[in-house]
């Protein structure tokens, strides 16, 4: 009995009519040529469809499918108001000005040096894109450093304010202690005066 289970040449007999899915349940590859003749003649073994992986987008609760976003949908989502206020976005104005200036200089320089108009325009557009992206990143980094500096400055101001409050509290406590000492001295002097008259 144990020899039968260890012998790789023997294949277990399976009743194909009892279960509709042939082969191993978790097998995801097609059977090789060394497999049994019943499985090699059938279609490739496919895993059951995963309910969590929905091709082509997600499914909503009503059973329909959400339409996938395309490039045209993205272009249609841009409004004229977005372009109208583009220059108000931080760093856009600096990046565009730097890109235009660099593109004009590089394209004009290439045209003056004898390049064809197509090459000069290509150089101008390329330098515009490169310098605009560089200026955008530089401006964003500068804004990040400024923001970090402002946070540090606010922390320093808070720390100094707390130190001043502590010093003021110490001064108030010292004044209070002196006032109490003076009041105690006055009371003792009054008691001494009364004791003198009582004798």
Describe this protein's structure.
The structure is a single chain. The chain has 199 residues and is mainly α. Helix content is 62%, strand content 0%. The protein is built from six helices and no strands. It has helices spanning 2-6, 37-41, 71-76, 80-84, 92-112, 117-198. Helix 5 (92-112) packs antiparallel against helix 6 (117-198). The relative contact order is 0.04. Residues 33-40 have low confidence and may be disordered.
Structural class category:
mainly alpha
Strand proportion, as a percent range, falls in: under 5%
Give the terminus-to-terminus CA distance: 124 Å
DSSP summary, beta strand count: 0
Radius of gyration: 42 Å
Helix content: 55-70%
Q: Report the principal-axis shape.
A: elongated
- The whole-number mean of residue pLDDT values reads 77
Largest sheet: none
Query: What is the number of helices?
Result: 6
> What sequence of helices (H) and strands (E) makes up the elements?
HHHHHH
- Which residues form runs of ≥5 with pLDDT under 50? 33-40
